[in-house]
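User: I'm new to structure prediction. If I give you an amino acid sequence, what do you actually give back? Let's try with this one:
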Amino acid sequence: MTLTILIAPSGFKESLSVGDVTCAIAEGVRRAMPDARILSAPMVDGGEGTTEALVGATGGRLHRAIVTGPVGDPVPSFWGELGGDGPRTAVIEMAAAAGLSLVPRERRDPTLTTSRGVGELILRALDDGAERILVGCGDSGINDGGAGMARALGARLLDDQGRDLPEGGGALARLARIDLSDLDLRLRHVRIDAAVNWHNMLLGPRGVARVFGPQKGATPDQVRLLEKSMETWAERICVATGRDVGSAPGAGASGGLGAGLVTFAGARLHPRFDIMREYLDFERLLDCADLVITAEGSLDGQSPYGKVPCEVGRHAAARGIPTIALAGTIGKGASETFQHGIAAFASIVKRPCTLEEAIRKGDKLLRRAAEDAMRMLQVGQRLALR
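Assistant: Good question. You get back a string of structure tokens that encode the predicted 3D arrangement of the chain. For your 386 residues, that looks like this:
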């Protein structure tokens, strides 16, 4: 029996782009099943690779820019212009200006990192005449609630002495007032949509500082400071605009950038998988598939909350199509993914090794894991014919 296999992975942070992951899995599948029909749907989630994927899918083009990086230094960046009919649409992945990959390991302090570069990319798109802007939120290295972006767009964040606060989420604990009088007026005339993890909240038990701060280098004390900062941020936003962003779905996306986009750019937040699949032809390809293979750097108890493997798995399961997930690491709670569309999962790491080695050999490990999964599937096919 010739299988049609849809490869629909995410990228592996700081290791492999979503395109690289897709190619590695396809090569592994072909080693075991050279006759298989392979379809590809690289599932960008708003993080790294989003702009390139959407520009490629629509026949658009990339624009280069230099912006303020997350640690305050200038970094080379980019934004995209989508092709096709309709309003002139820019696409920005926040990771290109404030991503974790732009934060050197020895400088990973989310109390200091800034989203200012995201605002600078929005200004570039406005300068170029964009009528609509799509912002992808993912793979962030910041926890400033979008404060840096807000300042780039013209907002002022002041302490109780009327002085401008320094960059970084930690300083927001001292925020007394938000001044919107110089906010760029062009924001009123452009539609901004943001693709976010809908499950990420700004505050509360699943607040962005508590859940994601440690992944960005925050110590326990820094997590507590960032929680206080985000609480103050939400309070001051409510005073200045009347918006309650503390518990709004998606407001905690990308270190709270979702809250900043809603407040200062007038953005509409959307579940990232829903808005991305509009551009990537996912539904049509899924209808043709017998099996889906997805992948992400880590599979754990957080995966059912908006991560690519479970989003892909849910849509496949609704059509009765099984999904296999490959992951760099299998973490605590990964078995919960069985209730969210994943039929089977496996780690690509087969023996003890350092993180650096796993990153360096990521493509090789993925090829081997995909081949192994297909050979196990062939065993099942033979048993079914007995």
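You can read the tokens as a compact description of the fold. Here is one thing that stands out. The chain has a mean pLDDT of 93.
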